[in-house]
Amino acid sequence: MADRAPLHGTTPPAGDLSGKCALVTGSTSGIGLGIARALAGAGADVMLSGFGDPRAIETLRADMEDRAGVRVRHDPADLSVPAEIERLMADTAATLGPPDILVNNAGLQHVAPLDAFPPDTWDRIIAINRTAALRATRLALPAMRRRAWGRVVNVVSTHGLVASPGKSAYIAAKHGLAGLTKAAALEAAADGITANGICPGYVRTDLIERQIADLAAQRGEAAEAVAVDMLAEKHPSGRFVEIEQVAALALFLCSDAAASITGTLLPVDGGWTAR
Ligand code: NAD
User: Fold this and answer.
1) Residue 174 and residue 188: Cα distance in Å, rounded?
2) What residue's CA is closest to ligand 1, atom 21?
3) Residue 224 CB burial class (10 angstroms; 0-12, 13-18, ≥19)
4) What are 116-153's pLDDT values in tens digits?
5) N or C, which end of the chain has less CB nearby within 10 Å?
6) Does 170 participate in catalysis according to the annotation?
């Protein structure tokens, strides 16, 4: 009997990214580390960025390289400093090649009422969560254009779509990052480059563990009771979002199957923004 094509189309692989170079900012922990692992697992060489204990970073870098069989490097650039971003982009190009994939993920949070928000902290949040993405994208686009292929994935937040009290700088930064995503998508759409934003709800990374711990201390409650309250207020699913769920979406956005998806802001939030 002659071979037959399957009746239902096979799902294309999540993406073979062999030969691609991915720069993931803020990838020494949390969501960025999860995305870096997913991209390396699909065959991309990866430049890690972010802070942490140098020995711990070296361990996770070497582990990623061994498991995935790709090249993985780390650069400790401080993304609040423009010259450091330029150096990071040059370092990436020199060691792994210009990034085909740029994941703007580095970020931080501070919770305080707007009228008591420390101005220096406001500036730092805007610089790292928003302006660094603008600077890195500007520097990454020319090489992507030359290759007629590129992926920009911005790790935005539900707070790039809606607001909550106490997080004014973060919300201003993330709404700006959402706008940058759309602007980059329009300018690069004809060049084989997509730009999309992922908008996670609560993910239990260091960033959220700090919020839970601070709230628990303020209220004199157990951390787990605070976590349950946070979910009840925001996540109809009643569950935290998993790092791997965000990473899987980032990986899909980097695949050829996602070539026509651009300029979107995709919630991964257990239903938060459906209310
Ligand atoms: P995280 O604290 O685990 O990771 C933050 C990363 O950014 C770390 O690698 C850190 O070293 C790096 N970083 C911080 N300041 C930097 C600087 N000046 N220069 C270079 N790197 C710097 O937190 P996370 O939750 O994984 O956050 C990653 C991104 O996801 C952030 O943009 C955050 O806003 C976003 N996000 C997180 C959640 C959540 O619930 N955790 C939800 C929505 C969006």
Assistant:
1) 21
2) 50
3) exposed
4) 999 999 999 999 999 999 999 999 999 999 999 999 99
5) N
6) yes
C-beta 188 within 6 A of ligand 1 = no
Q: How far is CA 106 from CA 25, 50, 102, 151, in A?
A: 5, 7, 12, 17
Count of Cβ atoms closer than 10 Å to residue 54 Cβ? 10
DSSP 3-state of 272: helix
The pLDDT of residue 7 is 38
pLDDT at residue number 9: 39
Q: From the candidates 170, 202, 252, 272, which is the catalytic residue?
A: 170
* Unique residue bearing structure tokens 């651009």: 262
pLDDT in tens, 181-212: 999 999 999 999 999 999 999 999 999 999 99
Q: Is 49 in the pocket of ligand 1 (CB under 6 A)?
A: yes
Domains of the chain in start order, with CATH, are 21-201+241-265 (3.40.50.720), 204-240 (no CATH)
Is the CB of residue 199 less than 8 Å from the CB of residue 269? yes
Determine how β-strand 21-24 pairs with β-strand 45-49: parallel
d(CA 80, CA 204): 24
Ranges of H-type helices in 13-81: 30-41, 54-68
Ranges of the chain with pLDDT below 50: 1-13
State the CB neighbour count (10 A cutoff) for residue 173. Answer: 29
Q: Is 80 in the pocket of ligand 1 (CB under 6 A)?
A: yes
